[in-house]
């Protein structure tokens, strides 16, 4: 497949069609491009280090999409392989890739973010609809979706995890702050669910529902500072208290699998 080197808007005009631009081959941009309409690249799309690409319509490539700075589209961003940016990836519609989506800062979409393998950002991942990955979803700060968050393996955030509907992971769910799901849905994980502050969900929580063996007590433990809403339908609830609260002498309740609630006092 031929590789087209595009150094300026003048070079780009060669590929103009009635909807925007269509490059039949690979495209390597050596400048920051601001495009009116759509950009369709049959092969890969690469924007050199320190530069960005913007389109008022969509950006789509049959291979990968990579930019040293950022990638932004008014409609959607789609790649057959991966999407990667040094700073951020942002679309008014959706962001979708066959392999992975990764940004140095954040990933944001008005509709949804979906990938065959993983979605990763050092700051946050946010979508108005859903966030879905075949393997894992990981953010340094927070992960938030208007509908649901789902990963084949794990979901992890340094701050909080929040979804309007449900949160589901094949392995574990972990947040440095709080975890919150919608008023009419719950949370489920093949292994443990952990957050340092509050845990809230509309219906039920299921932890340790792995299908590849019998879950240990540790694997089916739901650990949080405080459960403020929802029912633990499967798993062991462990409330550790909110940050800053004294733990010694604190009254705790642990719900075991058969529904029995055990009350006790923390000694240390």
List the helices and strands and how they pair.
Blueprint: E1 3-6, H1 9-12, E2 20-23, E3 26-29, E4 33-35, E5 38-41, E6 45-47, E7 53-55, E8 59-61, E9 65-67, E10 71-73, E11 77-79, E12 83-85, E13 88-91, E14 95-97, E15 100-103, E16 106-109, E17 113-115, E18 118-121, E19 124-127, E20 131-133, E21 137-139, E22 142-145, E23 149-151, E24 155-157, E25 161-163, E26 167-169, E27 173-175, E28 179-180, E29 187-189, E30 193-195, E31 198-206, E32 221-224, E33 226-234, E34 236-239, E35 251-255, E36 261-265
Parallel strand pairs: 1-3, 2-5, 3-6, 4-7, 5-8, 6-9, 7-10, 8-11, 9-12, 10-13, 11-14, 12-15, 13-16, 14-17, 15-18, 16-19, 17-20, 18-21, 19-22, 20-23, 21-24, 22-25, 23-26, 24-27, 25-28, 26-29, 27-30, 28-31, 29-31, 30-32, 31-33, 32-34
Antiparallel strand pairs: 35-36
Notes on the structure:
With 268 residues, the chain is mainly β. It contains one helix and 36 strands. It starts with a strand and ends with a strand. The model has no long low-confidence stretch (mean pLDDT 93).
């Amino acid at each position: 497949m031929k590789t087209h080197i595009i150094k300026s808007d003048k070079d780009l005009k060669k590929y103009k069609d009635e909807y925007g631009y269509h490059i039949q081959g690979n495209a390597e941009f050596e400048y920051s491009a601001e495009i009116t309409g759509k950009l369709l690249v049959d092969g890969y799309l690469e924007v050199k280090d320190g530069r960005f690409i913007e389109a008022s319509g969509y950006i789509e490539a049959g291979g990968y999409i990579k930019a040293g700075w950022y990638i932004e589209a008014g409609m959607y961003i789609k790649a057959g392989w991966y999407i990667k940016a040094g700073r951020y990836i942002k679309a008014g519609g959706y962001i979708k890739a066959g392999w992975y989506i990764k940004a140095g800062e954040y990933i944001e979409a008005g509709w949804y973010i979906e990938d065959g393998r993983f979605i990763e950002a050092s700051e946050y991942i946010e979508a108005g609809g859903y966030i879905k990955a075949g393997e894992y979803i990981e953010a340094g700060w927070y992960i938030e979706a208007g509908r649901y968050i789902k990963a084949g393996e794990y979901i992890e955030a340094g701050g909080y995890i929040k979804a309007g509907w449900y949160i589901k992971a094949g392995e574990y769910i972990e947040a440095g702050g709080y975890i919150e799901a919608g008023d009419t849905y719950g949370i489920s994980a093949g292994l443990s669910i952990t957050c340092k502050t509050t845990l809230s969900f509309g219906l039920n929580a299921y932890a340790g529902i792995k299908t590849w063996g019998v879950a240990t007590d540790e694997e089916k433990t739901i650990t949080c500072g405080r459960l403020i809403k929802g029912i633990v339908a499967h798993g062991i609830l462990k409330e550790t208290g909110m940050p800053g609260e004294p733990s010694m002498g604190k009254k705790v309740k642990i719900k075991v699998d058969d529904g029995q609630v055990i009350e006790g006092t923390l000694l240390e």
